[in-house]
Design goal:
Blueprint (H helix, E strand, L loop, with lengths): L20 E3 L5 E3 L3 E5 L2 H12 L8 E3 L3 H4 L11 H9 L13 H5 L15 H11 L3 H8 L5 E5 L1 H4 L1 H6 L8 E4 L5 H8 L6 H16 L4 H14 L1
Parallel strand pairs: 3-5, 3-6, 4-5
Antiparallel strand pairs: 1-2
Helix pairs in contact: 10-11
Length: about 230
């Protein structure tokens, strides 16, 4: 039978309620789950959104979560190797500067082209970035805004597996539908999400700082074990 729960069935605008709920006749809240579709790479998201365009669900409210590497359009930040840090500094107004693109987020997220009956219907990252450049509005934060009313959310695996990324992106998977494309790659992704790499020079620098702390009797009982770990790794 026809779909009755998601917004594509009625042709109406998606529910803007952050909890994405609808009321049942008896007054209880009925949770309508989102579909989180995880892929191994950003490139695969483009392929999947292209396939979505060919289905009867091409007008379903959607969004694509991706890193600033793919969606930042700020002329300085986008060409930096520290995009995340520079973006945060601009948003916090450090050094008296701010990001004009961030202030235009609503212009982009509410644009008719990204709405269910819009020009693009199912769209990909390139469509979002292109529209963001035209409107001088941030695609990165617009994609996050669109998640509130989206029925389907595309993102790389680590957005779903890494708890820190989930928290930073406000992703709550409780009672939602999660689809993992090519799930045999999950082990590697899960391993990476709880791994961290350090260089020998970083270890030596850390040891020198810890030496200073211990020699100056600064919280010795905490710093001595850390120094021992650095020494053993070196």
């Amino acid at each position: 039978g026809p779909c009755t729960e998601c917004s594509c069935s009625s042709g109406k605008e998606p529910d803007k309620d952050p909890s994405h709920t609808k009321k049942k006749e008896n007054g209880d809240r009925l949770c309508v789950p989102k579909i989180f579709f995880g892929t191994r790479t950003h490139k695969q998201i483009t392929q999947i959104s292209r396939e979505l365009k060919r289905t009867a669900y091409s007008c379903v409210p959607m969004t694509i979560l991706s890193s600033r590497d793919y969606t930042c359009i700020h002329p300085v930040v986008s060409n930096s190797s520290n995009r995340n840090e520079m973006c945060v500094e601009l948003l916090e107004g450090k050094h008296g500067k701010s990001c004009s693109y961030y202030h235009g987020v609503h212009k982009l997220s509410e644009h008719h082209a990204l709405q269910p009956a819009g020009l693009y219907q199912a769209w990909d990252i390139e469509d979002l970035v292109s529209l963001g450049r035209r409107l001088r509005a941030c695609p990165y934060f617009a994609a996050r805004e669109l998640m509130v009313g989206a029925d389907i959310v595309f993102c790389p695996y680590n957005y779903l597996l890494d708890p820190q990324i989930r928290d930073s992106m406000d992703i709550n998977l409780k009672d939602q539908v999660v689809i993992l494309d090519e799930a045999h790659n999950i082990e590697d992704c899960a391993r990476e999400s709880v791994s961290y790499g350090v260089t020998e020079s970083q270890l030596r620098a850390a040891r020198e700082e810890l030496d200073f702390m211990v020699n100056n009797n600064i919280r010795q009982k905490h710093h001595e074990p850390l120094r021992a770990v650095c020494c053993s790794l070196i």
